[in-house]
Automatic annotation (TrEMBL):
One of its GO terms (molecular function) is polyprenol dehydrogenase (NAD+) activity. InterPro entries: NAD(P)-bd_dom_sf, Sc_DH/Rdtase_CS, SDR_fam. Its EC number is 1.1.1.441. This is Polyprenol dehydrogenase. Keywords: Lipid droplet, NAD, NADP, Oxidoreductase, Secreted, Signal. Oxidoreductase that plays a key role in early steps of protein N-linked glycosylation by mediating two non-consecutive steps in dolichol biosynthesis. Acts both as a NAD(+)-dependent dehydrogenase and as a NADPH-dependent reductase during the conversion of polyprenol into dolichol. First catalyzes the NAD(+)-dependent dehydrogenation of polyprenol into polyprenal; polyprenal is then reduced into dolichal by SRD5A3. It then catalyzes the NADPH-dependent reduction of dolichal into dolichol. May also acts as a positive regulator of starvation-induced autophagy. CDD domains: retinol-DH_like_SDR_c_like. Its main location: other.
Amino acid sequence: AVILEQLLRRCRGGFPEPVFAPQPDRVAIVMGGTDGIGYSTARHLARLGMHVIIAGNNDSKAEEAVRELKEETLNVKVEFLYCDLASMASIWQFVQKFKMKKIPLHVLVNNAGVMMVPQRKTRDGFEEHFGLNYLGHFLLTNLLLDTLRESGSPGHNARVVTVSSATHYVAELNMDDLQSSACYSPHGAYAQSKRALVLFTYHLQGLLAAAGSHVTANVVDPGVVDTDLYRHLFWGTRLMKKLLGWLLFKTPDEGAQTSVYAAVTPELEGVGGRYLYNETEIRSLPITYDQKLQQQLWSKSCEMTGILDVTLRYPASG
Ligand SMILES: NC(=O)c1ccc[n+]([C@@H]2O[C@H](COP(=O)([O-])OP(=O)(O)OC[C@H]3O[C@@H](n4cnc5c(N)ncnc54)[C@H](O)[C@@H]3O)[C@@H](O)[C@H]2O)c1
């Protein structure tokens, strides 16, 4: 359905790039900014004059990405900081290195991800989709919340932008088996991690609002985008993508538009808890609005990552 909709839209003129005002005094972290949608997101933010920190675990690609972005955007404030989201120790180290810079943080884009990888585990023993796509971003965001809070101000909120997917609509979130150990399906595990990200965003927004923070959290769905994310799919599907991707899929730049929109548009100033698709708010799956489920997942995630459950201090307001 998404691919058909994208094809129709392409026939009607495509995905015109939105124009935003320069953002020279703002700092952004784009997790997974060396490739695909993340790279395009970083490029757009750098073009707006932001100080962009590309984070990721691909050292070799990072050097090239930073050089290209600096050359193309003429923005010298583009840099790379290593972070392996599949390792909690690496996330802690990344946050420590970032905080040592003593700079603010206005935009955090939780973009990195893997899809349909064979059953394997992160350094900390979590199923890879759940551990990297979801728990990695959960921990990262929580460790950066104090800096985001200090950086946001009335009328200039700091923003957390989390990249989910339409697969969250068909996912099952098994609270008794978040590691998919009883029955592993690569698609099911990916979709579960993407549903968890939607629940996380809504709960985070509730906590931020309850605490009166000048930080907002929104979740975006980039559509179906022609990137290397599909590298673990069946060869026939990859061949189809190679032949028809240019027509049916969004380009990475088009896929990044909703993330960039969520990161900078004045329309979303002070607005959080939204699921955004094609720069428009739409409804996510009804169960994702279930506050009890959001709370359960949040508490469990705190346990798994070993951080304090701040929910106890600030009950989410909705
Ligand atoms: N491509 C699509 O059609 C599509 C659709 C819906 C959602 N998404 C989501 O968009 C996001 C970006 O994906 P993409 O399509 O650009 O894919 P991609 O494979 O091109 O990019 C993924 C990024 O994540 C990074 N990454 C992977 N493992 C990491 C780790 N251990 N630590 C840190 N970074 C790591 C990679 O280095 C890369 O920069 C993902 O969250 C994905 O789930 C993509």
